[in-house]
């Protein structure tokens, strides 16, 4: 097993990875910026190294500096967490060339599946259903209009290199399409350095359901069932759960089996290794379409862990070390139901704008079926330089009703003083009749004005 692992991330995911490493007896190396000198992941790691100034471009995205720390500290592997450099194929290639193990897929596969247009082509060849769309990237604005006219409005304008809802807009007519095309191109170039755009038919009132997969280097691949991620705001997930209540309602048509089989078909077609997530849009008629693959651990991996009993970070590490998967597909089962709420420093009264500031008293909820993955502590600062997510609150119950009841109690018990957060929004949503009934879609949250 690895002796030393560098975690190339910050916040709650860095803390999450460090805890598993330490449980496995692995020495952990943290990196941090000037703004994170007192951060939780820095306090917890066995050693920590300053990598630059607060802006991410001068610290957490500084590939050369992070790699130098890995080499000088004797790290045998790098865990990227999610976000930041986790899906940067160039960084993976640099790590590989340095003789250090990247805990994730190979750089070539990451580059292939990280491009949405290429991933779509691969999926079609593997027999995985995809949303009807342009056969590839559209060359210019007029080509986008021609593709939309053939598909029929409304359409979705998407950045090929995008993620997290960045560079994505719905267009209901030609005028709005032209405006959306220009906007998505600009946003994609500024965020990803790639302004490639493609067009898809927009599926009305869809569910966003994803399948967790993991594969080793010995030809073994398994799925760990699905997650429901339909409660979103501006294409950003807000609440996730596993299993999907929608999929569970459609067991009569084997929806779960068909979606997970499609996910594994794509894994096998690309010879993918390590953890990944296949994201699908699911129509009201239960038709499903592949939209993209996330070649990393997801924020919401926690709900999958809760219903399967699997530590996905540990599995990632073992697979990267060359071990076979610890369990076969037949041994994996769903136990109960889990829900995750993303806790942000954001102001619900100001359109959920980020609300950095000082954390005074801080008390996390606890009790049966309650888990908190946090990256903050009392008397600390939430700076304006990074994503304002403070923690993920997860509850598990024997069924969905119990998971919801536990989440309500946990939200009420969570105390974060002196900082504006979205705790009140979550408390309200967990008592909403539509949410309790599992009757929602990706546009539901914004339609109700939240």
Automatic annotation (TrEMBL):
Looking up PROSITE patterns in the UniProt record yields: ATP_GRASP (PS50975), BC (PS50979), CPSASE_1 (PS00866), CPSASE_2 (PS00867)
One term of GO molecular function: metal ion binding
Keyword Nucleotide-binding part of the UniProt annotation: yes
User: Pfam families attached here?
Assistant: Biotin_carb_C (PF02785), Biotin_carb_N (PF00289), CPSase_L_D2 (PF02786)
Please provide the record's keywords in A-Z order: ATP-binding, Biotin, Ligase, Nucleotide-binding
Superkingdom assignment: Bacteria
Q: Any coiled-coil ranges, and where?
A: none
Give the matching NCBIfam families.
Answer: PRK08591.1 (NF006367)
The name this protein carries in UniProt is: Biotin carboxylase
The record lists the lineage as:
Bacteria, Deltaproteobacteria, Bradymonadales, Bradymonadaceae, Bradymonas
């Amino acid at each position: 097993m690895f002796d030393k692992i560098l975690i190339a991330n910050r916040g709650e995911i860095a803390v999450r990875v460090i805890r598993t490493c330490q449980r496995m007896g692995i020495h952990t190396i943290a990196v941090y910026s000037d703004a994170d000198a007192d951060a939780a992941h820095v306090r917890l790691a066995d050693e920590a190294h300053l990598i630059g100034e607060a802006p991410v471009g001068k610290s957490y995205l500084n590939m050369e500096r992070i790699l130098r720390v890995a080499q000088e500290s004797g790290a045998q592997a790098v865990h990227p967490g999610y976000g930041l450099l986790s899906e940067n194929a160039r960084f993976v290639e640099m790590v590989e060339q340095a003789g250090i193990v990247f805990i994730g897929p190979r750089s070539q596969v990451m580059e292939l599946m990280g491009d949405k247009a290429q991933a779509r082509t691969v999926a079609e060849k593997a027999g995985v259903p995809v949303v009807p769309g342009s056969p590839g990237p559209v060359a210019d604005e007029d080509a986008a209009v021609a593709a939309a006219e053939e598909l029929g409005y409304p359409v979705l304008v998407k950045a090929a290199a995008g993620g997290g809802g960045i560079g994505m807009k719905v267009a209901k007519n030609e005028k709005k399409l032209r405006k959306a095309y220009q906007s998505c191109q600009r946003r994609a170039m500024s965020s990803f350095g790639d302004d490639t755009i493609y067009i898809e038919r927009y599926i009305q009132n869809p569910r966003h359901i994803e399948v967790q997969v993991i594969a080793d280097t010995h030809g073994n691949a398994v799925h760990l069932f699905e997650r429901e991620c339909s409660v979103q705001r501006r294409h950003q997930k807000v609440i996730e759960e596993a299993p999907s209540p929608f999929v569970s309602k459609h067991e009569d048509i084997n929806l779960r089996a068909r979606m997970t089989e499609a996910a594994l078909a794509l894994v096998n077609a690309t010879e993918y290794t390590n953890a990944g997530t296949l994201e699908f849009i699911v129509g009201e008629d239960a038709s499903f379409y592949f939209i993209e693959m996330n070649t990393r651990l997801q924020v919401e991996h926690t709900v999958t862990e809760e219903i399967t009993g699997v530590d996905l970070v540990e599995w990632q590490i073992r697979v990267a070390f060359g071990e076979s998967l610890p369990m076969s597909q037949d041994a994996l089962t769903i136990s109960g139901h889990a829900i995750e709420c993303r806790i942000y420093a954001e102001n619900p009264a100001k359109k959920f704008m980020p609300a950095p500031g000082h954390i005074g008293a801080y008390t996390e909820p606890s009790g049966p079926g309650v888990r908190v993955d946090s990256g903050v502590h009392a008397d600390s600062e939430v700076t304006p330089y990074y994503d304002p997510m403070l923690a993920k609150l997860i509850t598990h119950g024997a069924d969905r009703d119990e998971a919801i009841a536990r989440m309500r109690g946990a939200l009420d018990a969570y105390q974060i003083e002196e900082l504006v957060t979205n705790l009140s929004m979550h408390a309200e949503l967990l008592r909403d009749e539509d949410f309790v009934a599992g009757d929602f879609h990706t546009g539901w949250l914004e339609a109700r004005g939240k």
